[in-house]
């Protein structure tokens, strides 16, 4: 098992540390669109419009790491600091659903937004999950589609499998 590094770059800090956020082995059948009990507030219709409402692959038990984005940058730039192989950083929708169900205490209503990398039909997408007064919501966007974000009081975090060895 590869240990996560404390400070990856000036734009990413590991915040999960030694804590293990474990997702059990999954059969890949659950999708975000189907998970209405988990995402009670809103599931963006783009999941269906973009053909993302598809079952995923079978996964082994996976330990997830959480990185906080503390600077500015595009998602391709941020992920390039973690790995040159984006497939190592991606998760399935089933893993996203389980993460949100297992660790609801992470989803505060005061600006915490969690990003997950998925892949469908050879294209990468970001899925973000956030909590509001009605509960969790989920929305996808194209991996390259995010503009630079301002360095504000929002807590933007990415969730990736611990198998990633950050590039320094």
Task: Tell me what the structure shows.
There is one protein chain. With 168 residues, this protein is mainly β. It has one domain (7-161). Helices cover 12% and strands 32% of the residues. It contains 3 helices and 9 strands; from the N terminus they run ββββαβααββββ. The protein has helices at 46-49, 75-80, 93-102, and strands at 7-9, 12-14, 21-23, 42-43, 62-69, 112-120, 123-132, 135-142, 155-161. Strands 1, 2, 3, 4, 5, 6, 7, 8 and 9 form a 9-stranded mixed β-sheet that branches. β6 and β7 form a beta hairpin. The two termini are 18 Å apart. Residues 1-9 have low confidence and may be disordered.
Key terms for this structure?
168 residues, mainly beta, 9-stranded mixed β-sheet, 32% strand, globular
Mean pLDDT: 84
Helix content: 10-25%
Measured by DSSP, the beta-strand proportion falls in: 25-35%
| Total helical segments | 3
Give the tally of structural domains.
1
């Amino acid at each position: 098992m590869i240990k996560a590094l404390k400070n990856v770059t000036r734009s990413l800090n590991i915040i999960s540390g030694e804590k293990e956020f474990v997702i059990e082995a999954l059969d890949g059948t659950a999708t975000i669109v189907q998970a209405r009990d988990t995402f009670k507030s809103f599931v963006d219709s783009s999941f269906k419009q973009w053909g993302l409402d598809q079952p995923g692959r079978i996964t082994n038990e996976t330990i997830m790491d959480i990185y906080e984005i503390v600077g500015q940058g595009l998602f391709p730039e941020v992920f390039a600091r973690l790995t040159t192989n984006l497939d190592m950083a991606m998760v399935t929708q089933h893993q996203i659903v389980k993460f949100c169900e297992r660790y609801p205490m992470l989803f505060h209503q005061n600006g915490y937004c969690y990003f997950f990398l998925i892949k469908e039909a050879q294209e990468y997408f970001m899925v973000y999950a956030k909590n509001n007064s009605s509960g969790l919501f989920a929305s996808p966007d194209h991996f390259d589609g995010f503009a630079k974000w301002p360095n504000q009081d929002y807590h933007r975090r990415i969730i990736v499998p611990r198998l990633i060895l950050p590039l320094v």
